[in-house]
Amino acid sequence: MKKHKEEPEVIVVGAGPVGLSTALGLAHAGVRVHVYEAARALSTDARASTIHPPTLEAWDRWGVASAIVAAGVRVDQLQYWEWRSRSKIAEYDYASIAGDTPYPFRLQCPQHRVIPILADALIRTGCARLLFGHELRSVEVTEGGVIADVQTERGPCRTRARYVVGADGAKSAVRRSLGVAFEGKTYEDRFLLVPTALRPSELGFEGLGPVAYMFDPEQWVITMQVPGALRIVFRLAPHEVSEEALRPERVAARVRRFLGRRPPPCESAPTIYSVHQRVAERFRVGPVLLAGDAAHINNPAGGMGMNSGVHDAEALVDALLATRAGADAALDRYAETRRRVAVDRVQAHTERHYRELGTDDRAARERRNAAYRHAASDPALTRRWLLDRAMIGERA
Predict the structure, then answer these.
(1) What's the total number of domains in the chain?
(2) Is pLDDT above 80 for 366?
(3) Which of 20, 175, 188, 288 has its CA 20 to 30 A from that of 309?
């Protein structure tokens, strides 16, 4: 059984946006960090792409916000439409929150563009090691710290650290090793993501912006412009078979129905992903902390998943740094506060937004549309609306 020669103060498990953000924040403050990633390279998964202002504020603390902004597409207006009538319900201008954040916009930047920027900045700190092919098998809480058992290409390895952070996703090995329950639900609906080479102006919706949510009781749609592509997200109903829905002719028919004309070929392969709403029973077990998808997952309506994970990372960095001054209670506050935010704010918001997309009650649709129009017509209400959608204040 091998040991790493230089034991870190903190081990972060998972080299996604949350794990790398946590490690970067700690290393930026001079903390020795090891990041263990089971894969042999950084992820190329482009699923998460929405970045809200508080996330950019967190990355700005660690010197990477400007590079990430440069890698994405800036969104200055948020739009809501009725799909069948092709009519815009409301548009909200991010300029209304210019006094609340240095980043008054939404950024669309797929996570496979974000991760290398975080990783490069992490290595440049000189306080971190990013270790690929390191698959966590278990964590053992001991007096004064924790031992991580990891399987590497060269065999098993045991490393002692003061703390371990589990940022290793919804199937977290850290969480499973601790025996922490991950309760919640899986939605019957799934999301079908179709990448295209189209531009918003080519979709046939006059005045369509780079991000739009299109309501419909049967086939709601979300369109999001990202660098070099336009993503179209469709609701996949419970009765639809995934393999059938992914057949090229079926994808083309769905896009044609949406556009009202023959679609161009897909830019890359469409994907289907399930939608969950779950939260860990607790975010702390002694010196082991959970963050991001390892701690909570929610449906992606509103693009809050990765963002809330990075907000976890920011809060956890501050809590871990506080323990250096003997403030161990800061970790309890992290665990309790971030779990409450995940349940009472993020999950509540995404659930409400998801239901609004496809409600089939006519009266409810009329009330929804009236509320959206009213909020867009009043500057004070527009500001409050966007503060909520932009997650400003979520980082309690």
Answers:
(1) 1
(2) yes
(3) 188
Give the distance from CA 372 to its chain's centroid: 25
pLDDT of residue 328: 84
Vertex 87: Cα angle to 83 and 91 (nearest 5): 105
Give the integer Cα–Cα distance in Å for 234 and 236: 6
Cα distance between residue 268 and residue 255, in whole Å = 14
Domain that holds residue 108: 2-77+97-183+276-360
Helices (H) and strands (E) counted in the chain, each on its own, are 12, 21
- Per DSSP, what are the bridge partners of residue 164? 11, 288
For residue 36, pLDDT over 50 is answered with yes
Say if 369 falls within a structural domain: no
**268 located within any domain:** no
Residues paired with residue 166 on neighbouring β-strands, in sequence order: 13, 290
In the three-class reduction of DSSP (H, G, I as helix; E, B as strand; rest coil), residue 213 is classed as strand
- Residue 383 included in any domain: no
Helices 53-61 and 17-28 meet at what angle, rounded to 10?
40
Report the alpha-carbon distance of residue 211 to residue 207 in Å, rounded: 11
Helix (H) or strand (E) holding 276: strand 271-280
Write the pLDDT tens digit of every residue in 97-137: 999 999 999 999 999 999 999 999 999 999 999 999 999 99
DSSP string spanning 296-325? EE---TTS-HHHHHHHHHHHHHHHHHHHTT
CATH code (residue 294): 3.50.50.60
In this structure, the number of other CB atoms found within 10 A of the CB of residue 202 comes to: 14
Q: Kindly tell me the sign of the dihedral angle through the C-alpha atoms of 26, 32, 38, 40.
A: positive
Whole-number CA gyration radius for the chain: 22
Taken in order 374, 380, 383, 385, the sign of the CA dihedral is: negative
Question: And the tokens for 223?
Answer: 């369109």
Residue 325 lies in a domain: yes
Angle at 109 between CA 376 and CA 246, to 5 degrees: 95
Non-local (6+) Cβ contacts of 385 within 8 A are 92, 375, 376
Residue 150: how many CA atoms within 13 Å on its side-chain side? 29
